[in-house]
Design brief:
Strand content: 25-35%
Distance between the termini: 6 Å
Number of strands: 4
Shape: elongated
Mean pLDDT: 95
Radius of gyration: 16 Å
Number of domains: 1
Oligomer: single chain
Strand order of the largest sheet: 2-1-4-3
Length: 136
């Protein structure tokens, strides 16, 4: 149990003359108990609704998240982190006390992973659409 988070890249194809659209999702990023990243998606993409549904994510969203992660990593203090990408408590969501050294390192590791994945996705330019979902 716990907070699992997924970012999917979408490939859209059309079948035959019927113009039947087929959407294929490919997992392009996975986070475990990175509640600050989840909080960002809930507030920025999901309009505050945290319901484990599938939500569309634009390239503009990804670029914005990249900027936010980099801002925290440039000044990785608990105060800066909570101002820019605050944690979110929840049932099995992981740690939220960034004054705890272990929890801060885990949090920063999630941001580093996020930066790496988004940079790679934007560089590859393989997908036109992205989707986010979570479960717990």
């Amino acid at each position: 149990m716990g907070l699992d988070m997924y970012l999917y890249g979408a490939t859209i194809t059309f079948e035959g003359e019927s113009s039947k659209m087929k959407i294929q999702l490919e997992e392009v990023a996975y986070w475990r108990k990175q509640n600050a990243i989840h909080n960002w998606f809930v507030n920025t993409v999901q309009e505050g609704v945290d319901n484990c549904a599938l939500y569309g994510v634009s390239e503009r969203h990804l670029k914005k998240l990249l900027v936010e992660c980099k801002k925290v990593l440039e000044n990785p203090t608990p105060e800066n982190a909570m101002k820019i990408l605050p944690t979110l408590g929840g049932f099995f969501f992981g740690g939220t006390d960034l004054t705890n050294e272990y929890e801060l390192e885990y949090y920063l590791g999630g941001l580093k992973y996020t930066v790496e994945r988004i940079r790679e996705l934007l560089k590859e330019d393989e997908f036109e659409y992205y989707y986010y979902s979570s479960s717990w």
